[in-house]
Amino acid sequence: MNHNKLNAKPALLAVLLLYAGGAAASDLLETYRAALAQDAQYAAARAAKAAGEEKLPQGRAQLLPSVNFNANTSINDMRTQYTGNMLFPSGHQRYNSHGYGVTLTQPLFREQNWALYSESELQVVQSDAQLRQAEQELALRTARAYFDVLLARDNVALAAAQKTAIAEQLAQARRNFEVGSATVTDIQEAEARHDLVVSQEIAAQSNLEVKRRTLQQLTNAVPGELDAPGPAFRLEPPQPASIDKWVEQAATQNQQVVIAQAGAELAGKEVERNRGGHLPTVDLVASHTRTVATGGAFGIGSDQTLTSVGVQANLALFQGGATQSKWREAEANRERARYELESARRGVELQTRQAYLGITNGIAQVQALQQALKSSLSLLEATKLGYETGSRTNLDVLNAQQQLYATRRDLYQAQYNYLLSELNLAAAAGALDEGSVERVNRALH
After folding, report:
1. Which of 58, 251, 278, 371 lies in the 20 to 30 Å Cα band around 320?
2. pLDDT digits (tens, 9 = 90+) for 273-313
3. CATH code 2.60.120 for 65-78+91-109+281-314
4. In the sheet where 281-293 sits, what is the strand order?
5. What ranges do the domains of the chain cover?
6. Helix, strand, coil fractions of the chain, as percent rounded to 5
7. CB-CB contact of 413 with 369 (8 Å)
8. Within the chain, which residues score under 50 in pLDDT?
């Protein structure tokens, strides 16, 4: 159904042209692509993803050798005074000493380092899922903002059309009053309803501007004339048409579940890492040093070079109870992560069922409102005819008009909710992507 086919009067067309603003037409897919490029929140998620990817090389570095280089130089001022009967004379020596050293350490057994490496892999999985979730949330935010603009635009158009219809009814009431076939009450009722719809139109115009600016926040550009549901709009049930299959898919592919699952595994690795604090560490250590001194206690310089290769073992015997405390903390966090995973699964199941029912119930609601719109049109025509023949009052006509426009507004809202439910279901199942947006976008042409 095309929302712009409203039996528009010139005043209504003027309102629509006012908000078109001369800008090029834009659809949902174009708006989503603009949001992908411009939305600051999604850009922050991309940066967080890039930062998260660095966890893997950092974890791998704990398993690889480390090489350290050090150098030193110093001026030494040494005074020596021997006591007793010594063969060496006392004296004063000033000399320079300098040197350098290179040390290589290769971990051979460090349980904590292996756990850190495993944690880094899970952290990368989390960062990937978080970016994917941010992308899906952006698609939903864009669709909501897009449909909010359409509904706000519909409300402006409906208010303008209703104002025009009431103005015609007011003019007719005045003409009938002049010929004696209507009372002053008919005029007052029409005037009151006219004043009310004028205030509603002002509020609708203000709301439209707010919704347009909300969409602008996502795309960093003032939106032009947006496409609304047109002839391609179809009411289609979810495929597959089984709510349990959608729930089953969401239980493994929903990004919230993926993040929580990685978090639970990460908490388990933290327990292993802190348990490793009780274990010894074994490293291969190789070093090469050279030390040069131009003088010494007896005025003799030296040039020493030392190369060594060996295995070094360390075992922490007691650290004030910190190791045991960290272990207990990690176990408590693992338990917390398990409950968070279960909570995520339950929440996702509820979201999936709500989205599925949003589509199926939305289809029924749209169909009911389409029929109600036909009935409201028939009622208005019959009420107008009854008013002309004297069997209906002016207030009856005004109420019938109000019912017609309220039904149209509810129909538009139901159509947008139905389209949004399609995206919500795809997001709940972890399948929301540009293709999903494109499928919904086809209904806007």
Report:
1. 58
2. 888 778 899 999 999 999 988 877 666 788 899 999 999 99
3. no
4. 66-80, 91-109, 281-293, 302-314
5. 10-62+128-278+321-444, 65-78+91-109+281-314
6. 65, 15, 20
7. no
8. 1-25
Rounded to an integer, what distance in angstroms lies between the CA atom of residue 108 and that of residue 158?
76
Q: Are 212 and 15 in contact (CB under 8 A)?
A: no
Q: Please state, as a whole number, how many other Cβ atoms lie within 10 Å of the Cβ of residue 366.
A: 21
Beta bridge partners of 289: 101, 306
Q: Which residues contact 413 (CB under 8 A, 6 or more apart)?
A: 151
Question: HEC string of 186-249?
Answer: HHHHHHHHHHHHHHHHHHHHHHHHHHHHHHHHHHCCCCCCECCCCCCCCCCCCCCCCHHHHHHH
Tokens (6 digits) for 259: 């993040």
CA distance 320 to 206: 65
Cis peptide bond N-terminal to 238, omega within 30 = no
Report the predicted TM-score, pTM, of the whole model to 2 decimal places. 0.82
